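Priority: medium. Attachment 1 of 2:
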């Protein structure tokens, strides 16, 4: 009996060594760029770890390692499936507070984030943070990183107050650490810069972003993801301030870093190309904008899912360019597809969906399809008034478009009423903030 027990123990140790050795070998192959061999080894590690049983933490660990690798290959669906299998096995009732469950929640949120499924990702991060706080097991530095993750998602869904709370907590934790990572602290400052940028507080945004860059430079930190995102935020800042040369300098720095860190055909690089292209469109650099935006859509079609919000953005920017050039037949399929993606991802009553409704309405107005245009304008205005308030500039933009439809369909009294209301809303708005929208605010302000 003793011999059998010892043999069983020895066999278990060998079995354990096998799955761990496979993961180690897979990681080394991945680091050397041998993705095919790495994928095979990760798969074998999962198969080997499965011998311990479906609910064993070692299998969950192997699945998460494999999922992380698949995520880097942009195989998001396969990565998501693995992580959901792991979570279902180790937390079947959805109530566990075990460390491996928390890790799985965060990993799954990253994969969902990369698919543009921000609300779903945020729910997972919120649950994981509640567990972190309840158990007091996670190191403070890791909690700070997870708070920054939550803040990024809050920004993406427009929850600015929640984003600021998360960022302040993350910065407080970072400031209290004796050996805090400068790059991680700079990332939190970038988050503040992005938050202030979204809120239109440009002075505070510039101060936060400049301090983040200074911190990275002083620490001699490599030009990694943190520096790229800081340059991106600074480019957007100077674009909003009308300082186009400074904005382009930062766009170029961000793109150069992205090409080096992630490569050309990557979602992060695609997003930067699209944003830079849109900035060129706003500046009326049409040829440069088209080259960038066509490339962004090409990359997006290749590396993103067909329902990814980011792809909708890129298509919308290219469509806007085509509309300014009166290339309506090229713009319309881009507008319709991006609208379908937004409705699927965020719902029919979302403010971003409303912007796309308004843009399609304007295009149809230009094509003389007044009935369809009117219906879309009504939808856009109703959503904006409900989600943003009746005095938001976007309401003014869409009211003016609707008024044009009324003029074209010989309803001058109603058209004049809407023109007056639109002009009142937009009278004191900064044109640079509204330059991304279809309606010419300058022309609207001069209307009598």
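Attachment 2 of 2:
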């Amino acid at each position: 009996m003793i011999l059998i027990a010892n043999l069983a123990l020895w066999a278990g140790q060998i079995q354990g060594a096998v799955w761990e050795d496979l993961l180690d070998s897979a990681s080394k192959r991945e680091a050397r760029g041998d993705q095919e061999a790495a994928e095979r080894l990760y798969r074998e590690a999962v198969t080997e770890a499965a011998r311990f049983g479906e609910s064993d933490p070692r299998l969950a660990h192997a699945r998460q390692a494999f999922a992380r690798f698949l995520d880097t290959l942009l195989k998001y669906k396969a990565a998501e499936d693995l992580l959901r299998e792991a979570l279902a096995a180790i937390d079947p009732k959805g109530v566990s507070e075990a460390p491996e469950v928390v890790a799985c929640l965060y990993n799954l949120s990253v994969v969902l984030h990369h698919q543009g499924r921000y609300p779903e990702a945020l729910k997972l991060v919120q649950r994981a943070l509640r567990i972190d706080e309840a158990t007091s097991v996670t190191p403070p530095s890791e909690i700070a990183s997870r708070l920054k993750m939550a803040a990024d998602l809050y920004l993406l869904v427009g929850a600015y107050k929640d984003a600021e709370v998360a960022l302040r907590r993350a910065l407080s934790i970072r400031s209290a650490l004796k050996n805090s990572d400068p790059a991680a602290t700079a990332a939190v400052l970038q988050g503040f810069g992005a938050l202030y940028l979204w809120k239109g507080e440009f002075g505070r945004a510039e101060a936060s972003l400049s301090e983040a860059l200074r911190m990275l430079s002083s620490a001699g930190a490599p030009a990694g993801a943190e520096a790229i995102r800081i340059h991106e935020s600074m480019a957007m800042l100077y674009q909003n301030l009308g300082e186009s040369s400074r904005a382009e300098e930062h766009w170029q720095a961000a793109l150069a870093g992205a090409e080096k860190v992630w490569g050309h055909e990557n979602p992060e690089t695609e997003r930067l190309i699209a944003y830079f292209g849109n900035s060129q469109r706003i500046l009326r650099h049409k040829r440069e904008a088209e080259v960038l935006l066509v490339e962004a859509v090409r990359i997006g079609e290749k590396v993103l899912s067909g329902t990814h919000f980011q792809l909708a953005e890129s298509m919308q920017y290219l469509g806007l360019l085509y509309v300014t050039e009166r290339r309506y037949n090229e713009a319309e399929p881009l507008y319709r597809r991006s609208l379908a993606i937004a409705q699927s991802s965020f719902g029919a009553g979302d403010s971003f969906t409303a912007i796309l409704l308004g843009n399609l309405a304007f295009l149809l107005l230009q094509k003389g399809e007044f009935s369809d245009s009117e219906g879309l304008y009504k939808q856009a205005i109703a959503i904006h008034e409900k989600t943003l308030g009746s005095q938001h500039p976007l309401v003014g933009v869409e009211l003016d478009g609707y008024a044009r439809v009324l003029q074209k369909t010989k309803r001058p009294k109603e058209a004049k009423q809407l023109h007056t209301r639109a002009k009142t809303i937009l009278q004191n708005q900064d044109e640079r903030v509204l330059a991304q929208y279809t309606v010419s605010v300058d022309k609207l302000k001069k209307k009598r």
